[in-house]
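FAQ
Q: What does a multi-component entry look like?
A: The components come first, one per line:
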Amino acid sequence: MQYESERIMTNTLANPAEKLLFEVSKTGRRCLRLPELDVPKVDVKAALKGAKLRQKPANLPEVGELDLVRHFKNLAQKNFSVDRNFYPLGSCTMKYNPKINVTLLSLPGFTKAHPHLPEADLQGHIELMHTLEGWLREISGLAAVTLQPAAGAQGEMTGLMVIKAYFEEKGEGKTRRKVIIPDNAHGTNPATAALAGFETVTLKGKADGNVDLELLKSLVGPDTAAMMITNPSTLGILEPNMVEIARILHAAGAQLYMDGANMNAIQGMVRPGDYGVDVMHFNLHKTYSVPHGSGGPGAGPIAVAKHLEPYLPYPRPMKTDKGYTLANPNPKQTIGKVRSFFGNYGALVMAYIYMSQLGREGVRRNGENAVLNANYLRARLRGTFHIQNDKPCAHEVVFTDAIQHKEYGVTALDIAKRMIDYGIHPMTIYFPLPAVTGGHGAMMVEPTETESKETLDYFVEVMQKIAAECKDNPEVVRNAPHTTPVSRVDEKTATTNPQLYCAMCIA
Amino acid sequence: MPFIQNTDADRAEMLKAIGVGSIEELFRDIPANLRLKMSDAGVLKLPPGKGELEVTRHIQDLLSRTRNAGDYAYFRGGGIYNHFVSTVVDHIALFDGSFITAYTPYQPECSQGTLTFIFEFQSSITALTGLEVANASMYDGASALAEAMMMGKHVSEDRHRKENRNTFVLAGAVNPEYMQVCRTYADVAGLKVVHVAPGPDGRVDGDALAKALTRKVFAVAVQSPNYLGIIEDVEAVVAAARENEILVVQAIGEALSLALLQTPAESGVDVCVGEGQSLGNHQFLGGPAFGFFASKKDWLRKMPGRIVSETKDKDGRRAFSLALATREQHIRREKATSNICTNQSLCALRALIHLAAWGKQGFVELAEHTVAKTQYAMQKLAAVPGVKLAHPGVPVFNEFVIQAVPGLEKKLLKKKVVGGLPLDKYGKGRRGQYLVAVTEVTTKADIDRYAEALAEAMKGKPVAV
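Then the predicted structure of the entire assembly, as tokens:
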């Protein structure tokens, strides 16, 4: 794998100056041509009479097809990706994305499925959504699912909207203003709670990352709407007191929301509904192999307990005697819609294809092997890197830079950058917060179940090598990476003096 | 075992290294009574796993119970359009694993590919809209409008500190999906959404809008071309909003219209959002595609979503990286401008490839081609006895409304025509109206077939009034 990254530098012959599309543009070049106009030609200005037109054409790049393809193939080589690199980015579940996902997705039955087709023409699609909902219901142990949210963060928002609507109908909308969130939660949790109009209350975690039950009891009251909890936690640790946490919230009339970002660990092993969770979201791009797409699209369905079902967004896929239908069964209670049409259907299709292959045993097997792989890395790298909570972890393990930082002045960031030279995508760093990693730079590693033992052994070897470098040759780590098309990037200037477009696009 | 490479021997070795006897021991923090037993098939009612061949057959079977736009002379749009997508787009974005299997470019040194294309995408949106700052994309047009609404509220909190403006105005014929999503977001945020219905000509009712734009309003949105296909006078909305310092948002459902129409920058709007599906993205029942979001630079630090900037590496070479993360949830938590964590990079990549593949001239020609076909379709359909244009004399881009009679769908389907989208539910007085969409995929033969089928379906029906 280390040879892969060395190649990155060299193969840029097509565009040696690394120019942008706008910079290689030349008047008169093009890729696509239109069909012959088979209707009478019109004078566009006359046809659009009464409308104001733009003063000059948008300055889009003009390129031939070969150079267009080469441009993107060159860019492709400047990217690490799961297809080429081990990508243990904690909290992101960068597992292998089976090729069948995209091959079947590119069938015209999907690509040309227009949302306003007559319902009779959508039967297979609605059936797919209905079945997928059923599977997620089974895995969550909850009563109902909506597939509409476009991402995990939108799932969180939908979940809180549902909770809010529930309390409003109960006449407690005005009083239940607060959402309790552990301090090590993903940033989306507090941001979502604020967006959904709640006040956030931060729950300080215990040193081991678990919820402090006494502290929780002191915070929960008649003004609590919900608690958002990530399980396994963002430290990759299974929360042992989920049942008790649910009981505390329910005793006060509040709801328990589970962030399912880390569902890969526990799928098929425990159903969140059995813990007493009222709402959870899935990240289909994490757990069910929808490709991450350089940052999206994903899908963030939510599952809810029976009492919350009436508030789910519409339309909902339903099975009737006459076939499948998209309905709005609770028009008075539904929160409405969070996304146009039916959500990221193409992403749902890929999750469906993947889950069809997993089946019941596969779901469980994935969780088991994800956890096994993470614990193997924990065992192998113990001693080389400091571990804040050295006990069995779930699907990810949090190391820190405590040893390397204290002894040799090398940080988690430096270590992460050095990994790139060995062809491994860096782990997630500085998350969870220093508060829960003893003030040290966190390095959160999530290998996923799809990696082989050989790859994990290679990773261990690399990390040991880097640890040795921190001691013997810290400069090589501090100045890493050395094999990439660019050296360490000045991210600060990107923020203080942002340059957000190529000047030639408005020339 | 599909997708798992560990063998039993590997697992045994790994367990030994960990120092536990079984995988289940690693799950000891889950109460034993809650742990599922795989021996009990009733506990997790999923079907057994299938191989690639079986799954392929199964998907083909499901698709056999569907029909798609390609099976018909197809005339529906309403926010998602039946465009041609170049094979180049799928080869790069779908079948090359380099972009689709990467993630958010947190580590710029090994993500220059992604960062560069996002920068080029932002530049393309700037080229199209004329607005200085575009983000790396949103979920879809509808949620992009809702995010613009939330941004409008934040801007107003700064600009009009003591006024506590709380109303968002939707002016004229806005896509109902967008309106519903805005209302859902507004409900929980405690904002009021006021819809000013379009006037009889299908355009923004200027008088009614002027009355609605009080100092309680923090932002107003106008869709152009609007949901009925009509090109609005966006400048007039900007002028109406000026006196009370109301943020103006333009929403766009058909991004191809940007090739010809006055740019959002030229009409003076603050923010332009829209649905990007038209730009190289497949239909997929409406998603995934992406929302675009562009703004005047004044509001940069209030914007939602990922943003990429040009910068330099340590050795002075040009490089790209994520920028302005201090607006975002992972830094600002409950004070973030939005809860958005990702963008729709891959869909944005598709748009970039699409725009470059058509190019500066080609993109204009594509739009002009569409206008010619739309004009032809208007003439043909309006010439059918009993049918007329619902809003004659107003400019449209690629969609228009015909007035016929309700319940024509089935008769058209028999002729393999999916006619315009029935508007009966879209507002008062729209009974028997249909929203007809045309793209470059639509042929003259399709249009003629529609007109013929419509004529036959209309036989003996009362003339539209």
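Q: Is there any commentary attached?
A: Sometimes. For this entry: Chain A has three domains: 1-78, 122-357, 368-494.
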